[in-house]
């Protein structure tokens, strides 16, 4: 169930005894939890709201859940920042809640870090009898729409193209996108222009990997050389930068192989996301970028990057002096027509 659907049901008067927030998007989980908690309108929260962290004693949680609300409509018990419903958590820690003798108006909310294990009996029970709220990463179009809406709430206008740029700068993470919007809202008036984003937004390492690719394929050698040099000079762990470069080529290779197999576009995107763990916008970009290379060229690029990674870790070469030459070799040898 989506958070908006849950909020609608709560507003209509449907309030289950059990709710679970699950998913990898921490910002969405946190935002959704606070929205639901606000919708529940807990009266006298200092007496009717109990919050536990991590892996609390289940007996203490059950006792709190079984306590009658004091001068209020309901009592809400929350377990936050927990992994008790993950596949790594042993046993059925939560099974006792199904048998708890709790007042019918009370609500137990579990905010799981990451995804729950849907094989667990309690998760199945809540999925059937309560709200299992999925907080998965927003899709490309959803995050772009969210950024446009959030900017509007701050009195700013932003184009879909510029919203997409912020999404890419944020590596598809809603929380990071929110932080960037907060910053831009402090310096922009009326609208957010591409120049504002370039000047004020923090460039993630992944974004810079994309920018290096664009500069290299556009033949802007001087700019790409300067950017690579700056990034390696600033980065205390240049191996991480090399890893992101390799991931970018790996995504392109999967996309190119699917394209050569004549998969439809949506199937390619789904396969890239599943095979590499890429977000939707990254999969779309990989598909577009892959057209500039053959599959053989992408495989050779990965082999060269892997060898450089090994040599750098062995101290045979220095990334800060040798990486750009390797990139020139990779891109200059590419068949731009793909």
Automatic annotation (TrEMBL):
* Domain DNA polymerase III delta subunit-like C-terminal span(s) in chain numbering: 208-328
Top-rank taxon, per record: Bacteria
Task: Establish whether keyword Nucleotidyltransferase is in the entry.
Answer: yes
Q: Which Pfam families match?
A: DNA_pol3_delta, DNA_pol3_delta_C
NCBIfam families xrefs: holA
Q: Member of which family? A: Belongs to the DNA polymerase HolA subunit family.
Q: What is this protein called?
A: DNA polymerase III subunit delta
Mind giving the lineage of the organism this protein is from? Bacteria, Bacillati, Bacillota, Clostridia, Christensenellales
The gene name on file is holA
